[in-house]
């Protein structure tokens, strides 16, 4: 499915390049030529009859992409077999068709045609399967950073908000690379192309130990998911061997030996490949890359950057989902704030009604007082009627008081409701603040955990170095003990020879037996004894030297016998 989608991207550019009038349709004769070329580069048997039958309708007009897709899927893409064709040839064919229409290189020739085609392939690799093909700003920045990491100068790009087409992308790279040497850009684009499109995890020169001759030779190694190949040179033409990197394979570091440093090995079922890197950093990078290849092989993946692209897309989708959640939370908060404002407005209306009721009560009270005064003046003669009228007025006042008390109780209830709403809003704000604090604390803890894991890795690396140094010192001690035993044997031999020279055979004397000769070997004084001994007198120099030789010979013979009887700790080990 991934191979079909990758081929479809390149073929889409070839189809649109044949649409000279930008109408979305291509003539049938051009589609027949395109189909024939696709059959040739994809190594598929060409069936002209099927092509004629597919386009045998009465309509002689051009065909849209929707009309060409059924034939493309049935007779071309469904018959494609991975490994039977070269993907670069398909890309080169489609690039040749589309570049003539859309790509116009500038006068400075910052990008060669080969570099532009590789950037076009990288664009198609990173673009999503949505047509017309565009590249999101995050992927554009990622690709430019990958290219800039290989170059001495960083490529800068303008801030992008929307997706970018491949031709606009090539123009941006051309504009950013005018201040850089074209050869540097070509080398950087080629390396990124081999890494991302060619699935090259790592490549470089390493020293390899042979299996038969056991000599060390320098080879160009190329690591891909599932395989490790080595060649005579970096042009990758003369392949000397391929190692299957699968579940039966493992990699581990080795100690320095055979005058080689920074060694590691790749263990397989039937053999082990010993390799020497230029330095420890390169060795660690190769070990990490081989472990990545093992992981990809175990997961059934064929491309590391496909997995990285999927992760980046998931992160973008997660980021967009979080932005949508934040927008939804903001909308809900605004709705709550609107409800609160409505409640405040309602409360203001109630207060205004209360003020109006109080004003009306005051006016009514003034009117009632005036009426009462008038009644007192005019109804003095009608006392009974005045008393009844007064009783009626008192009853009316009581009703008014009850209504006023009811209004005041309603106002207090509304004020309590307003306070509770304010407390609920403050609690929600505090909850949001605590949530932000927890998120910041969680992020800080994650960063501290990553720093601790990095420090632990560095400590483990230092421990490995100390163990390697201790192993080399032990080997030097064993070699020094072996040389000391050889020197002791040589001293014994020369003591025997000197003893024979010091006792010549006179007339009538018998030759001393070998056991008597060996009984008094000559002792060679140590360096410390020679330095601490005072110089002998000239007149007795010869006699003293003879006495010292005899005494030292006896001592050395005893020491030699003791060495033969009691081996040292190094020999026992």
Automatic annotation (TrEMBL):
Residues 364-376, 530-544, 563-573 have a biased composition (Basic and acidic residues). Residues 199-295 form the PH domain. Residues 358-380, 503-573 are annotated as: Disordered. InterPro entries: EF-hand-dom_pair, EF-hand_SWAP70_N, PH-like_dom_sf, PH_domain, PH_SWAP70. Residues 545-562 have a biased composition (Low complexity). It comes from the Eukaryota. SMART domains: PH. GO terms for cellular component: cytoplasm; nucleus. PANTHER family: DIFFERENTIALLY EXPRESSED IN FDCP 6 HOMOLOG (PTHR14383:SF2), SWAP-70 RECOMBINASE (PTHR14383). This is DEF6 guanine nucleotide exchange factor b.
């Amino acid at each position: 499915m991934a191979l079909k989608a990758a081929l479809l991207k390149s073929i889409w550019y070839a189809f649109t390049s044949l649409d000279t009038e930008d109408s979305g349709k291509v003539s049938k004769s051009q589609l027949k030529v395109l189909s024939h070329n696709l059959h040739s580069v994809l190594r598929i048997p060409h069936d002209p009859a099927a092509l004629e039958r597919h386009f045998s309708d009465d309509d002689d007009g051009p065909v849209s992409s929707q009309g060409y897709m059924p034939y493309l899927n049935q007779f071309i893409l469904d018959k494609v077999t991975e490994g039977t064709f070269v993907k670069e040839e398909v890309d080169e064919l489609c690039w040749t068709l589309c570049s003539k229409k859309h790509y116009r290189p500038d006068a400075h020739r910052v990008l060669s045609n080969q570099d532009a085609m590789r950037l076009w392939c990288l664009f198609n690799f990173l673009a999503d399967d949505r047509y017309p093909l565009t590249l999101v700003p995050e992927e554009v920045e990622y690709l430019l950073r990958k290219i800039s990491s290989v170059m001495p100068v960083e490529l800068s790009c303008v801030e992008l908000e929307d997706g970018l087409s491949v031709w606009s992308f090539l123009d941006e790279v051309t504009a950013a690379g005018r201040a850089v040497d074209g050869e540097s850009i070509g080398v950087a684009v080629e390396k990124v192309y081999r890494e991302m499109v060619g699935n090259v995890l790592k490549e470089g020169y390493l020293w390899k130990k042979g299996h038969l001759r056991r000599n060390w030779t320098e080879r160009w190694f190329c690591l891909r998911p599932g395989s490790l190949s080595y060649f005579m040179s970096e042009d990758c033409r003369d392949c000397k061997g391929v190692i299957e990197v699968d579940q039966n394979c493992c990699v581990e570091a080795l100690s320095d030996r055979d005058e080689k440093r920074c060694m590691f090995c790749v263990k397989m079922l039937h053999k082990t490949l010993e390799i020497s890197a230029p330095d420890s950093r390169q060795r660690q990078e190769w070990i990490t890359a081989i472990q990545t290849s093992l992981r990809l092989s175990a997961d059934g993946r064929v491309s590391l950057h496909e997995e990285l692209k999927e992760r980046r897309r998931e992160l973008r989708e997660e980021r967009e989902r979080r932005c949508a959640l934040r927008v939804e939370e903001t909308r809900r908060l605004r709705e709550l704030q609107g409800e609160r404002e409505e409640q405040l407005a309602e409360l203001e209306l109630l207060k205004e009604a209360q003020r109006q009721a109080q004003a009306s009560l005051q006016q009514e009270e003034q009117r009632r007082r005036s009426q009462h005064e008038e009644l007192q003046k005019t109804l003095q003669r009608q006392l009974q009627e005045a008393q009844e009228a007064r009783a009626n007025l008192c009853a009316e006042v009581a009703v008014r008081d009850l209504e006023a008390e009811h209004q005041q109780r309603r106002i207090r209830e509304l004020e309590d409701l307003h306070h509770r709403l304010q407390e609920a809003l403050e609690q929600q704000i505090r909850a949001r603040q605590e949530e932000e604090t927890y998120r910041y604390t969680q992020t800080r803890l994650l960063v501290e955990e990553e720093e601790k894991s990095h420090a632990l890795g560095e400590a483990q690396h230092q421990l490995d170095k100390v163990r390697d140094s201790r192993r080399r010192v032990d080997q030097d001690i064993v070699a020094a003990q072996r040389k000391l035993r050889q020197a002791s044997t040589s001293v014994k031999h020369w003591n025997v020879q000197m003893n024979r020279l010091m006792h010549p055979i006179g007339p009538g004397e018998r030759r001393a037996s070998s056991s008597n000769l060996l009984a008094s070997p000559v002792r060679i004084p140590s360096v410390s004894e020679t330095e601490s001994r005072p110089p002998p007198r000239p007149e007795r120099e010869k006699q003293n030297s003879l006495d010292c030789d005899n005494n030292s010979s006896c001592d050395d013979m005893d020491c030699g016998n003791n060495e033969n009887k009691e081996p040292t700790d190094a020999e026992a080990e």
